[in-house]
Write a structure and sequence with these properties.
The protein is of the alpha+beta class and 391 residues long. Helix content is 31%, strand content 13%. It has a 4-stranded mixed sheet with strand order 1-2-13-10, sandwiched between helices. Strands 3-6-7 form a 3-stranded antiparallel sheet, covered by helices on one side. It has a 3-stranded antiparallel sheet with strand order 12-11-16. A hairpin with a 2-residue loop joins strand 11 (244-248) and strand 12. Helix 1 packs antiparallel against helix 2 (50-63). The radius of gyration is 22 Å and the shape is globular.
Amino acid sequence: MTPVPTDVLPRSLTALPPAQVEITGEIDIAEAEDFVRQHHTEHPELGPVEDRLAEVHAEIAATGTYRHTTEELTFGARVAWRNSSRCIGRLYWRSLKVRDQREVSAPADVAQDCVEHLRVATNKGKIRPVITVYAPAEPGTHAPQIVNEQIIRYAAYRGADGGVLGDARNLALTELALKRGWKPPATRGPFDVLPLMVNCQGQEPALVEIAADDVLEVSLSHPDFPWLGKLGVKWHAVPAISNMRLRIGGIDYPSAPFNGWYMGTEIGARNLADSDRYDLLPYLAKRMGLDMSSEATLWRDRALVELNRAVLHSFAEAGVTITDHHTESQRFLTHLEKEEAAGRSCPADWSWIVPPVSGGLTPVYHRYYDTDELLPNFFPASKPSGCPVSH
């Protein structure tokens, strides 16, 4: 692979468009040119770039946009992962499986195909990094947009006493699903999978339930605390982000769900531990018999470590891919070294790269990183008129 010197990167590869914008489908020709040149530079076997640039210019002049080749789409999606400054797991960016579903635009079809994405990514527990790219934004048309933050989200129900059963992060999403006709289980529980919802201006919104057989979940147990395995705590195996837009060469793909595999702390130190999510630490500390009379006893820290042990132990026992924060920190520095050796910048957001458990014990803690964002990349979901998005 031919390196791209970071000191000569074109303007549009380092200057990002606003995160919250209305998607119009209008093309930034300079950004399109930069991407095509980058593709040919990193893949010299494609030959001279001039012919492809001429095709792109002619297509934009005739239609107001252009269509990526399959090779361009695959390269762009992989580089968007490579450029994702908040992701610690980018070492394997070249292995990303790209599902080209650009012909799929109807909300119901997008929702149904997201379930197929989940099946492909799950791979019987041997999690595959996958991205599925649906219809792009084009001038004069509206593209589909997935409402759910991830393909798998657990419902949240507020009780009469003000308490919440389930994942409190998803209260608004659950309320929207109920308004759209979703029927929760007769006996509501803390891990009820929400339906997928997809919007597109001018079309009927879609709501598709995900069958239990399509959701691989891991029940938590602990090597030293048998009682923890009887609590019914579990988590799903595939972290498929679904409400971010992919931008490649000036083209926005508002629906492009993607996944890697979990790092244990995402589940054990955030999803199950955050006070505004499942808030399990006080309960676990009591069951462990910890002294909770003062913060100085570090009861939260001790319970947190054991919860994270439970996550890693349980996924390993179930044969489901996961990684720990120490291993992944080392892998990220390996990725960083490879990118620097290739002459490329490797942007990283320190606050996201450093794990939420024992950050100072990991090698990613003790250094600075480039902060200039690059293109292609992923952006927060935009909010076109008529397409509300839950965050």
